[in-house]
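[Discussion] Sanity-checking designs against the backbone

I'm trying to build intuition for which residues belong where. Below is a structure token string of 515 positions. I'd appreciate it if someone posts a full sequence so I can compare it with mine line by line.
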């Protein structure tokens, strides 16, 4: 009798909603809000509920810009050492949280070639002095077999192979350095000897070969991490002219002959000098021909105009954010650090960045290990004593981009107008998937051939912002309140059949709950 009663309710609900489906559509809203339990929490609003507000966001999908390459983070030796101290089930949880379809769906991974500060000690794969042809290069990359490689394989398996992996060197082997040490750097960092430059260029090729033997293919690499900084950890200083010459005379020809499919990125340092480096290197056609794009970090501040200027001068070269992190140390549940990430990502994307890469994917409670005590924060912090992990606000904020702007998403024109209290916004045409796969924690379904308009809106103010969102020349419009200190992702679903499907799914769930 209870079954029959529920069935009647279901059928009646279907009939009574028939006129309701005349709406132009609805939107999925995903919110992460300070001071609440909302973390990638999903709700629905309908285009019929529109009203004018003081702030209007207008999206024009007819005007498009760059495509997304991906979002991700770095698997460092420090991250793997922390993971190794956790139970296997927790390791698997971290892999799913980052690379799985129910997690942040990362699509890029950065690793370090040779050691970096987030290693336990300095190491390289060529320790024989003046081994110009690298006859003694460790082609097994044995050190990484115990650290980076196992977790790269797990990340690839969890993501079903959908990862672009790139590497960056912090320092060449000690014998190639003018300082005779991997830690720190003179200027220039490399010895002024063509044999050293050729050997270092050959090292890149051999490193790629070695990883390929381990079943891992690289998508790309940067020439040098932070080449302007003589850091107190592994470093190697270049000027833009020195990097240009190294690429033109050695690295470019060797990579073009051995691994032309692997993308080369220059600079890999802060936005303050990105245009200067791009101009010097790209103005040399012999060097420029080998370079895919320019990598950059966030540590010198916003400087989004520098990205814009670089793109306008060199529109055929890509821009890619290759490292960001919050330092010093760990601040548990610090909301401002998460907001700083989102602010930077939105600004970078709106000025032609094709992706954004975080630093360590997981660190311990001290923000390490780091063999030179340069401890930092991470989206996931592990308590290695209890074998548990804590998701920082940055994890959820990153998810608002990596989950909902997959590779091949295309940025579209967006304008924000209002008298005051304007939010920060970026919008993309994204590969359209069914509602169940858009849910932050649900299983995915197959994508359709259509695209959806997806926007992420950041409100760093202490007051809510009432906004109206309009799609130019379409009947797609909605109104909502952006909560104080929040990040919100809005996914437009103009198809009324999708709305009907959603409502019937909701009714069905309620029905079977009572059967």
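Best answer:
Here's mine. Compare freely.
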């Amino acid at each position: 009798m209870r079954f029959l009663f529920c069935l009647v309710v279901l059928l009646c609900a279907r009939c009574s909603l028939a006129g309701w489906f005349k709406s132009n559509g609805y939107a999925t809203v995903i919110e992460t809000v300070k001071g609440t339990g909302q973390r990638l929490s999903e709700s629905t609003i309908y285009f019929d509920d529109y009203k004018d507000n003081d702030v209007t966001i207008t999206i024009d999908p007819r005007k498009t810009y760059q495509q997304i390459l991906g979002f991700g983070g770095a698997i460092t030796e420090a991250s793997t050492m922390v993971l190794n101290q956790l139970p296997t089930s927790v390791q698997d949880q971290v892999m799913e949280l980052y690379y799985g379809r129910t997690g942040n769906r990362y699509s890029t991974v950065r690793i370090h070639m040779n050691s970096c500060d987030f290693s336990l000690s300095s190491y390289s794969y060529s320790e024989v002095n003046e081994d110009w042809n690298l006859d003694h290069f460790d082609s097994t990359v044995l050190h990484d077999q115990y650290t980076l490689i196992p977790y790269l394989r797990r990340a690839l398996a969890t993501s079903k192979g959908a990862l672009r992996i790139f590497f960056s060197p912090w320092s060449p082997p000690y014998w190639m350095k003018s300082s005779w040490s991997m830690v720190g750097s003179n200027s220039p960092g490399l010895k002024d000897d063509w044999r050293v430059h050729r050997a270092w260029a050959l090292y890149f090729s051999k490193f790629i070969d070695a990883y390929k033997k381990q079943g891992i293919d690289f998508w790309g690499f940067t020439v040098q991490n932070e080449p302007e900084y003589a850091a107190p950890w592994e470093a190697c200083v270049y000027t833009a002219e020195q990097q240009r010459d190294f690429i033109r005379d050695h690295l470019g020809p060797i990579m073009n002959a051995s691994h032309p499919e692997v993308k080369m990125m220059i600079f890999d340092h802060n936005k303050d000098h990105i245009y200067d480096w791009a101009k010097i290197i790209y103005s040399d056609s012999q060097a420029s021909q080998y370079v895919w794009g320019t990598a950059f970090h966030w540590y010198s501040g916003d400087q989004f105009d520098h990205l814009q200027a670089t793109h306008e001068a060199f529109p055929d070269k890509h821009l890619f954010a290759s490292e960001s992190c919050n330092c010093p140390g760990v601040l548990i549940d610090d909301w401002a650090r998460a907001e700083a990430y989102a602010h930077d990502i939105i600004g970078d994307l709106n000025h032609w960045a094709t992706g954004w890469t975080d630093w360590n994917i997981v660190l311990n409670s001290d923000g390490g290990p780091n063999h030179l005590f340069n401890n930092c924060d991470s989206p996931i912090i592990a308590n290695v004593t209890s074998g548990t992990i804590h998701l920082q606000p940055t994890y959820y904020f990153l998810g608002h981009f990596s989950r909902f702007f997959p590779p091949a998403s295309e940025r579209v024109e967006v304008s924000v107008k209002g008298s005051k209290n304007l939010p920060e916004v970026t919008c993309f045409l994204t590969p359209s998937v069914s509602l169940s796969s858009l849910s932050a924690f649900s299983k995915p379904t197959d994508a359709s051939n259509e695209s959806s308009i997806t926007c992420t809106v950041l409100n760093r103010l202490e007051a809510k912002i009432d906004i109206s969102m309009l799609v130019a020349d379409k009947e797609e419009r909605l109104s909502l309140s952006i909560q104080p200190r929040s990040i919100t992702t809005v996914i437009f679903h103009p198809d009324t059949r999708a709305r009907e499907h959603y409502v019937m799914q909701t009714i069905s769930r309620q029905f079977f709950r009572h059967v």
